[in-house]
Amino acid sequence: MSINNIKNRLREFSKKDNSWIERAKYRKENKAWLDISFAIAVKVMSSLKSNKAANVFPKTQKELAKALDCSPQYVNKLLKGSEKLNIETISKIQKALNIIIIDIGLKKKNVEMVAQQEVIFNKKKVIIIKNYKKLDNVIQCNFTTNREHSQINEYRKVING
Amino acid sequence: MKIINTFAIVKDSLYSVQYDTEMLNEFAKCFELWNDPIYLREFFEQHKEDLDNKFWNGITIEEAIIKTKEDARLFEEELLSIAETGKTEKLETLSTLFEPLSKGIIEDFEKDKAKGMKRSSWLRIYAIRIEANLFIICGGSIKLTPTMNKRPHLILELDKLEFTRNYLQEGEDENLDFVEIN
Questions:
Q1: Numbered ranges of CATH 1.10.260.40 in chain A
Q2: A37 vs A20, A21, A42, A46, CA distance in Å?
């Protein structure tokens, strides 16, 4: 019977597959961080594609490698979505592509609440602003003119509604 | 096209071919590709027109990539469960997961709708059923169209099925069935 022939041939000549089952278990066990790495890769790729359409640097993997001061091979690895990225690398990517990957969640209202509380404790308004030594990720509020401004694009959008 | 190896994924139950053009067997290759953002991006850009069909509800390329990975994960977990215990959580086995191949009549979607689209996934794994619980995987694809015979990448899958059947039958009259999981 030819079905039996086929079966026997398969049994006799087939190698055991270890590659799929090991990879499947790996993907299952590491799902949490692999999902994040994958999502970052997708976002970075989209960013490169839209830069390409707008003819803005960096628009290729090679240009991104230059911007990140790393090898094109590393950028390719990153875009494969299975790299354990550290915070510094993510930070550099954010800067190079002008995107936000990790949102530290600084909300406009929280900043106002902090400033108001300090006023309650009888500090002069000028001193409050001076005490925010690093104004990078802050919405600055000028209490005299009641105007807010920020050095970060994303927060400017929040301020301007 | 040449088959250079066959692999036993689950002994006496699930096998997979490896073609001479590939580094991996077809089964392993499917899941590597479906988890590769670079491959997926290129694929969806190439098939943007199919993705824009109103059947897919205006999904973007980015969303399609994320959906593929998630569908692949669910798919893989089912198969891992079968590989480890012989059945899935829903007590499905390989023989219930594999269905006869519909090469592409409009019926395809209607049939899926009738069975309630438990998972509207565009992922497919193609195999030959040798007997009730014995399958050999020949390939897989992302299928964005109702038919297989109008897209080169799907026609290739039909060719692989045909080629592998001939390889197995060695000219005998058996005529084994083509099947797919979706």
A1: 3-97
A2: 21, 21, 9, 14
- Side-chain half-sphere CA neighbours of B106 within 13 A: 1
Chain A hits for B7, Cβ within 8 Å: 14-17
Residues of B in contact with A81 (CB under 8 A): 35-37
In this complex, do B38 and A46 lie within 8 Å of one another by their Cβ atoms? no
Closest CA to B30 of B93, B63, B65, B76: B76
Residue A117 has pLDDT above 70, yes or no: no
Q: How far is A7 from chain B (nearest CA, A)?
A: 8
Q: What is the pLDDT of residue A142?
A: 63
Residue A75: closest C-alpha in chain B: B38
Best of B62, B128, B137 to disrupt the A interface (most A CBs within 10 Å) is B62
Q: How confident is the model at residue A140 (pLDDT cuts 50, 70, 90)?
A: low
Q: How far apart are CA B144 and CA B153, in angstroms?
A: 11
Task: Tell if the CB–CB gap between B35 and A28 is shorter than 8 Å.
Answer: no
Which range is least confidently modeled, A91-100, B18-27, B32-41, B103-112? Answer: B103-112
Query: What pLDDT is stored for residue A2 in this prediction?
Result: 81
Domain A3-97 coded CATH 1.10.260.40: yes
Confidence of residue B92 (pLDDT cuts 50, 70, 90): confident
Nearest CA in chain A to B5: A14
Q: Per the structure block, which two tokens stand in for A75?
A: 């950028």
pLDDT at B133: 85
Give yes or no for residue B111 having a pLDDT over 50: no
Q: How many CB atoms lie within 10 A of CB B144?
A: 21
The answer to whether B37 faces chain A, any CB pair under 8 Å, is yes
Residues of A in contact with B36 (CB under 8 A): 80-81
Where exactly are the structural domains of chain B?
A: 3-171
Least Cα distance to B143 among B125, B127, B160, B166 occurs for: B125
